[in-house]
Batch of 4 targets.
Target 1
Amino acid sequence: MTATTKTGSGLVLTVLASSQFLMTLDSSVMNVSMATVAEDLGTTITGIQTAITLYTLVMATLMITGGKIGTIVGRRRAFALGLVIYGVGTLTTAAAPNLTVLLIGWAFLEGVGAALIMPAIVALVAANFPPEKRAAAYGLVAAAGAMAVAAGPLIGGAVTTFASWRYVFVGEAFLVVAILMVLRRINDVPPVRVRLDLVGSALSVASLGMLVFGVLRSGEWGWIRPTPGGAEIAGLSPVIWLLLAGALLLYVFMRWQTHLAETGREPLIDPKVLRNRQLSGGLTMFFAQFTVQAGVFFTLPLFLSVVLELSALQTGLRILPLSVALLLAAAGIPKLWPRANPRRVVRLGWGAMIVGILVLVTGLDPGANASIVAVPMVLLGLGLGALASQLGAITVSAVPDSQSAEVGGLQNTATNLGASLGTALIGSVLIATLSAAIVAGVQLNPDVPDSVKAQASTELASGVPFLSDTQLEAALAGSAVPQSSAAQIVDVNSDARLEALRVALSIAALIGVCALFFTGRVPREAPSTSVTADP
């Protein structure tokens, strides 16, 4: 089909980028508002973390099915349906009187809506932009999502500080209405009469659900050995059983898809698509990018808000250079170098991200101030922008336009799985390192009484909260710990926090280095200027 727009690329790009921004904003906003929301709803931080977890879980498990529904009913109709469901979810969340209603509105309704919207965004870009302009369009749409992660703390901190967290969700509802009002002015992709593979949908939801949920609970339950006092099954953590069951069901799902394809029926995913070298390379890069991105954005706000004790608004401002650099790279690279070698751009992007993380690691010390994050934020933004400028066009150009929604489902599944793994893995490494460092520091300190050491070995070994010096001093002041011992414990906590942050960020850098080994699947030539023909 000819990719032209009815009203110009500006409106289309604004609508699709705004939608991508909207889908990504919630979790990053809530990360800086968790304490306030928990108090407002009469629940705990764990309850709010559960809502964040389930939102990611619903999206990750339904993306493939959402992409297929877009093929059946039409991309624009699926997009509109998703927006309506999402809008109802945001209003439900804004009015939530308790955690149960919050879970229904945010985790379920918004998650279902996002699963319909995000695959359709990929297909609508392909339908509204000619091939030579798709790289720039995909880059800006991807940049909008990454910017939501970076700008979320700033938006959430400002709105929560000066008004109420509920206004964030009210504002999202208004944005949904605005997008719906102009949606008809965007070119659609006609629906295709195919049957939805219900068995495959159930298998994909169950398998991915178990995998994502297992990873997300690893910090609380442990990966293999159960945490002290935690849940266990046959002497092992429930996480390993969830991962094993999820992997087994995923194998069954793939065998079922192959069976449908071989017997001439309609699979949820064409197995041949997954054997496409260019597509698999793009999906691998998406997965790795979001793993590192989520890990960094889990760790960095802890340094700014806990170690340096900045406010939510100040934390958001310190992250802002990343958003600016990301947007400049995502928009500038396709515009200035439209025929750039995608593999080289992706490798340079990973290089900038790795260097940015390592600069941040070396700058973390007890005397550090907030200015040390400026250069790393710019490098990370340039790296993320470089990847954003290439990956969307790489994945979609690998298949015919008729399969763009299916690829959209796979792409967003990869990104959500990566984000889940990054948060869980980096978070569990950080907490484990913090616990071990604090216990060791207390036990080896001769100035700490034996009674305090015994308490540390039993309570702190099971995991310690990431506390600021001010919070810890206040907690110790209300206990029977002698003042001299309290000062020693505060110093141990301060050193342990920095060690935990360095280790967690180093793991993120290591994942980035590992990703370089898979960049050989990224093509050297920019996506062809000729439209991929449908079979």
Target 2
Amino acid sequence: MTTEVMRPEYPRPQLVREQWLNLNGAWEFEFDDDRMGDGEQWGLGAQGFSKKIQVPFAYQSKLSGIGDTDFHDLVWYRRSFTVPAEWTGRQILLHFGAVDYAATVWVNGHKVAFHEGGHTPFHADITSALRSGDNVVVVRAEDFSRDVTLPRGKQYWKENSASIFYTRTTGIWQTVWLEPVNELYITKLKFKPDIDRNEIQIRTFLNQAPAGRKVEARIDIRFKNEYSTSTTFSFTHAEETRSIGLHDFNDHGLGRWWTPHKPNLYDVTITLLVDGKPVDTLESYFGMRKITVEAGKVMLNNRVYFMRLILDQGYFPDGILTAPSDEALKQDIELAKAMGFNGARKHQKIEDPRFLYWADKLGYLVWGEMANAYSYSEDYVRKVTQEWQEAIERDYNHPCIVVWVPINESWGVPNILVDKRQQQHTLAMYHMTKSLDETRLVVSNDGWENMSTDLVTIHDYAWKREDLEERYSTLEKTLGTKPHRREVLVGGTAYEGQPILVTEFGGIAFKKSDWEGWGYSGAENEEDFLKKLHDVVEPFLQSPYVQGICYTQLTDVEQEINGLLTYDRVPKAPLEEIKKIFNGPVKY
């Protein structure tokens, strides 16, 4: 097995420190089907494991070096590491990008962390557990493959993939890494752009209050070589907020605003000083972008904007949920843009931050969506609420994200039509999301059975052109659509003039690979595929009531063959021909 570091790029692009140590690569690994590890105290680190795995790939994937898709819900990891000598005297943080689902971490036999949630990051200060020379980290990862109340997204609870459900991911599936910090350091930044006032609000958070010391932060903001500004302020608490005017900011040709057409980004350096001495330096960035609804229209930077989105599930043939490389994440965006899409709905997956970084850099709208459970319980409510808050916290600064989707197609709330508890939970997820982020739109239950929502969204896989033209010809007929025999609005929710978007449609199966599978409708050859694609797209572009679309889907995924690209990212028709279809004129 190779010992090279897999996925070597910096894993946290919105908060970059110069010094860090990537712990990806070869780890010892063990299945614990008989649940012996706890009793035998494997966490102490003395127990060697019999297998090797390539982190950050889950054992089910080929890239892990194991490729076993059977149920193994309890697994263990072990590896040694040495802290660089130049980090001596500093605090050492151990970071995990994502571990599915519950993770317990020991360093040199000391328990340092426990985390629930398969898609969100966590870290621990391991300084007190360290020793000179080699150190041993052990991770116990427990999944609950058959639990249908667990927030898991598209991971199937049965043995083999089927229908719209795919291979499971268990254990570490994003980067593991170390970084050194001083006694006082910056834990996070939050950027809130205001294009109307030409200001950026920056909230800076420290790990602790200054406690009588003179603590200052210097913020330097740059835009290419054209503009720079800086400010210095003092801390009296562990959080300070400053609004900085971007005085030469103007709207001539959209100025420096962030859009998919012109993804302008400002670079930020923030330096923390204690008694005048630098103790922490971070690099970050922000985009000046505004997403709102006005007079029933979706507005990007105060202008009516039609969203041409692609459903993107973020699966890869050899890595499952983990992209084989940073370039693969970037390529998915480049291919989608080449087909005429200005964004993606990341479906049932809280995506790797590196994808969001490339969306920010390349200009690509993203709908951030929770990985849902399938059934309702009080424990589900606790778990999904906690993980969704962590997802919003992690991704708040990315200008590419314009819409949050906490629930999709009543997953987790299957009886929302009549169950008051499930209705209240959906409302709570909507309002909680709004309470954490007032700058973005929120869809309470994408596809059907919406409660309070900023956008009314419909999933419609009809494939006959004449049916779609008729169905979306008037507002009354559009709202009367019965997606999957469900109501568009439930719980006494009335339509209040929100923009209407069709956020899943198409799904045309066209077999152009070795995969056997299915889709929502079918095509015989490339010519037939392009004709049927045109027939399902144009009615929505011509409807005066549809203000955005999301086609299903970017790629084939396992047995699903309804992608515009095969699973290994080969176009099923010329990209320019697909672009012509999706970039047709919009009728308002």
Target 3
Amino acid sequence: MLSTAAAAFKPWRKRLAMIAAEFAVAIGAALAFARWSTTIAVNPMTRIGQVSGLAALQFRLIAVALPLLALVVWSVFRASPRVHRIVLRLVCAAIAGLATGMTAGGQVVALRGTPWPLNGQSGDNGRLEAWATQIQHTGHMVNIYPPVLPHLTAFWADHFVDNHQTAFALKWILIISIALTGPAAYLAWRMFLRPLPALGVGMLAGIPSVVVYKPYSPLVLVVLIPLLAKLLQLLRNSPRRPYPAVAWRGAAVGAMLGVLFIVYSGWHVWSAPGIIVAVLGLFPWRSGRDGMLRAGAFLGTALLAFLIIGGKYGYMLLSAADSTKDRFCSTLTLVDPGYIAMTPFYTRNGNLPGMWPPPGELGGVGVFTALMMVGVAVALTVGLRRSAVIGVVACFGSAWAIRFFFASHMERDQAVQLFPRTYQTLLYCGLALFGLACVLTGERVKERLAAIPALQSPTSSRNAGRYAAVGVLTATVVLTGMAASAQSDPFFPENPKGVSTMGRLAYQAHRLAKPDGTCSKFAPHGVCDKPRKLNPVSPPETDQLLHGCEYAWRKDQP
């Protein structure tokens, strides 16, 4: 006979086991697919080799997805409801992993034959490599940047790279970050939604957010927004929970927010004002003294856990806020600040003339953006009391306001202050709200249909739900495969020839020699450049004006 405590723990043990299985399947599928991609033997420097590589990735996706879909079909017709739920849960997790595992596989193919990451020693990756090298020698870095990635790169290079080259470690850390974005998006939304809706919302919002060149930042974004919404939900429920439960939940959420903060802090900055307003609005002011104390204990433990992990870096960030000026214009700096849709990075060359963004169909706004705003309206209409909707709306509104605040002062201050990066938060939140609108509307329709006596048939209702799972999963596999291919293709090596493309980043990686002086396997014409010594200290500003702002697709260019 089980004791009372053991009997009470048994359901939790089963639940924890299923959660662990879901995590393992999602992450395992992503990493395994990326690892499998290393066996695709093509020459990534030729266009035929690139097309063959993309086709091989698609074929392998089919080879893995078909048995998974067949398993779901079997569970629809043959399995018990409990077994069907388990199968569906694990298959959704696997498909979330495959979605970005294939994108990571595209990077594996693009960088086949070279140990260097995208852009070699240049740009953001070159700076990360320099900081990691400094950490190897001194144990710390001089720049104010989220510390996890440089320290992780240094650790990986010291323990898993023969010559301790930080660039070679960074290559695989970035590929793994791409692979984990899909599982992270899916598992984050599982805090609110059942497996199938979580897969839909997670992939709809998470896949377009992937940035192949800097994948660690969207990896944080796809987790942070649902986690902030979860913070609001737990705050609202805290008056009804005992103090120990309130305390450990607050500490858990605060710790996760702190870990994300020291990996990449930008999304916290854009979201913070909106979340603070939401916390004040949802705080249980009318729950009595005891209820407010429990809510205060939740927020207090969350803040304490966050400060323990991210407080030191947060203090450094705030201390440098007045003295740090971002004066570099990216291609997005000169785009209409009200534009939210495709980015110029992947869709056109940075130095070709022509209007950007392209004129939209509805008052200059494209159909994509208009549909996203319809989703926002529907989500607010049917889910205004839902914590998930409130949290995402708070982050969207916060980033929207901060974007225009910094952009409006750009000319006066001659500083960009990273405002174009709010774009990713806005895109992710808008698509997440569209997905939530679809889910909540579906729930409303299901409730209304259930109230019609003629349609009340448990068997037909259950089967309809199961059949829908087959259709949604099939469409998700095809769509995410197409998206992964489309995201990978621009980053295959391409000789710049005076034209700024994303393909130049991989081309540069193939052009760099190895530490022993030999060229990479597919170096163009067997010619390569000698690696240079990196300086972890940024060069001093030579002027007080914005620089890098001349892009030929500006409207005033011929």
Target 4
Amino acid sequence: MDACTLGDLLDVIGGPSVRLHTAPAGLTVPVAEVLLYDAHAPLPHLPGALLLAVGVRAAAAGPLVRAAAEAGMTGVVVRGPDGPVGEAEARSVALLSVDEDAAWHHVHLLLASAIGARPAASGSGLGDLFALADAIAAAAGGATAIEDPRQRILAYSTVAGQAVDEDRRQGILGLQVPASSENTEQYRVLFAADRPVRLPALRDADLPRLAMPVRAGGETLGSVWVVDGGTLAPDAEETLTQGASTAALLLLRARAAQELARHQNSDLLRRLLEGTADASTAAQRLGLEGSLRVAAFVLDSAASVPDAERTALRLLDVVRLQCEARYGRHACVLVDGVVYALLPGPGARHRALAEDIVARAGQALRVPVRAALGEVVPDVGGVVDSRADADLVLRVLDRHLPVATVDEVRPRITLLRLTELLSQRRELSAGAWRRVLAYDAEHGTDYARTLVCWLDAGCDMAGAAKLLAVHPNTCRYRLRQAQQHTGIDLDDPDERLMLWLQLRVLAGLRGATS
């Protein structure tokens, strides 16, 4: 497992929680552990450590920074913004800070958990939770389960010979505590407590429980439950208290590992979409193989969104949740207000998924959402092209068509690209069409639309007259007048083609009068 660096640490918990003031040695310096400063004990030589300046005012932390440098430490963490930046830079020591009212034990727990959170670690960290459940069960004398705040069972003990009941069996089978009004009341009592709680059996065939909430810095992370089969140890409550503290560290570490992995994967996906990442490396890291396509989701630009940035982040959560529900671990990223997701092929169900996400997101965010699906490509190497398709599709969607694949709107995006090409090149945007439009504007005639209808009808006079809702002789007369007054040559097939393209694409004219 690679060592945690200062940059890794900031990726996980940087921002409001921990702020970096200076890092003269760079962000690649290792961070191995966190140490609480003790004014009554000598400072140990601990290369790579972060020293928490307990009992030292930020403005007076200069001597502590010097001592940390002499001990080979990576950095010092102070409370408050006015730390000794100059001293830290002179001694090549990183200086970080936390809020004035931050509890040092909470900061210590947060940093320690983040330092242990590496993407190469054992997945979600559940292996450590299972070992903890076994240790609590053995010491407390009862079968143990560790849950998250949503009553999902994260880990359970497997110590032989301990009493269990049907509630435990069903919970482990589904990895979810069975729902009931009695359970709801017990959780209310538990989460209101700050010490182990003894809870009675819910039914005659069940067993009572000893439970303890798991918290860190005031945040409830879950709970630990021990089945009381009549053989609990005298110090079971103390064991459970210690176990809950360890569980908090492990849960924070698991969450931090997931956040760090997600951050790194998001950065890799962003580079893959931009074409700056190695495709084979990205495929291996992101677990991508076989055909796939890029799906793009965006908030309706016509809608009024008070906090668009925050709403876009919520859209990312909705897209990620729905994709993970169908495909498991999934690659999603927010780039410039657009949420991109890689959907594994084949693409038969992709449109239905996009429609479902648009409906769910629109309901949850109270903002219309649109979704575009690029071409299905054979492998990761084609992701850039599929993303380009999706971006084009987004540009032609509207409230009547909020979801579409690139194949469904191919004519629209082709005309869009032609419009851009024609308008960007002087020689392509010049020509007789401008004279036709100018004459119409000056004299109140309708020669341009007459020409478009005639060309749309394949130069058939009767077809053009039908589109215009006029007599064929009227259509014929207008065409002669248009040639006479604007100098167009309708006998030249090349000029007819160019005239049609420019009037349809650049002028935006359509054949039907409606």
